[in-house]
Amino acid sequence: MTDSPENSPEDNHQDKADFQPPELRFFGRRKGPSLSDRKQSLIDDLLPTISVPVDAASNVDESPLDLKALFKGKARKYWLEIGFGKGEHLAWQAQENPDVGLIGCEPYLNGVAGLLTYITEEGIDNIRIYGDDARHVLKSLPDASLERVFLIHPDPWPKRRHARRRFVNPPNLDQIARVLADDGEFRVGTDHPIYREWTALQMSLREDFVWLAETPTDWQTRPDDWPETRYEAKALEGKATYFVYRRTARHET
Fold first, then answer.
1. Pseudo-torsion of CA 2, 7, 10, 12, nearest 10°?
2. Which residues, given as ranges, of the chain have pLDDT below 50?
3. 155 counts as catalytic
4. CATH topology assigned to domain 37-50+73-252
5. Number of C-alpha atoms within 13 angstroms, CB side, residue 36?
6. Whole-angstrom distance, CA of residue 225 vs CA of residue 234
7. How many whole angstroms separate alpha carbon 55 and alpha carbon 189?
8. Rounded to 5 degrees, what are φ and ψ at 53?
9. Distance of alpha carbon 253 from alpha carbon 245, whole angstroms
10. What is the dihedral of CA 50, 51, 52, 53, to 10 degrees?
């Protein structure tokens, strides 16, 4: 008796080769309600002109992302936002810091359309968008190439069995530590008590990051250069926490 095509040894071997643990897989929505004609036109016409050219299928990136070329030589430093939601925070940072090239990653198509609306209405030209999993961009970035990384109100995945889905996990933190320049900042915002404790615990285990808070008010008060988003304004789970970590110098680790 021979194996059927569906259960061939080759297919089983390929399934195992393609397997990724939960902390490396993507979980979340990619599309919501139908887009208006105007937003769909932004997706069709504007997005391709400011998209980040990353090959999501590539496991080994032999040609790191050229940030200078991506921003046409107009930016003197680069920041990354992981999961920008509707784009309020990213748009604000772009307007306040015109000399910074900002990359925003968001797999939720409706969120991408929201940011494109800000870009069009406000005439923003220093944002580039990757409409998929931020980890594709992280692995493509050169070492020590970013000055800041933002993770603002990520999905908390509050159930214990889903903990490994949380973005703050060792493999992702290893990549963030790699791409951040010495003394660069990693900012995490959350209003969920479980994610607050999880982040504090995971970051306390790192030797390549230092928490900059000296008193409770340092992480309970929103910094002046950290705008409030509509998600934060709802405060669905409670008071927000503002974590700011510094990437230690390489010789300190």
1. -140
2. 1-19, 22-29, 60
3. yes
4. Rossmann fold (3.40.50)
5. 7
6. 20
7. 29
8. -80, 85
9. 15
10. -120
Nearest to 167 by CA among 28, 17, 19, 16: 28
Residue pointed to by tokens 């769909």 = 40
Catalytic residue chosen out of the listed positions 18, 44, 66, 155: 155
In single-letter form, the type of residue at position 139 comes to K
Residue written as tokens 């208006």?
36
Residue 32: both structure tokens together? 């919501």
The per-residue pLDDT for 19 is: 40
| 25: CB partners within 8 A, 6+ apart | 165
**231 CB contacts (<8 Å, ≥6 apart)?**
85, 153
Please provide the distance, in angstroms rounded to a whole number, between the alpha carbons at the two ends of the chain. Answer: 58
At 68-89, the pLDDT tens digits run 999 999 999 999 999 999 999 9
Long-range contacts of 183-186 (CB under 8 A, 24+ apart): 183/246, 183/247, 183/249, 184/144, 184/146, 184/147, 184/148, 184/149, 184/246, 184/247, 185/147, 185/148, 185/149, 185/244, 185/245, 185/246, 185/247, 186/148, 186/149, 186/151, 186/244, 186/245, 186/246, 186/247
CB atoms within 10 A of CB 139: 17
Burial 141-178 (b: 16+ CB within 10 A, else e): beeebbbbbbbbbbebbeeeeeeebbbbbeebbebbbb
Count of other CB atoms within 10 angstroms of residue 51: 15
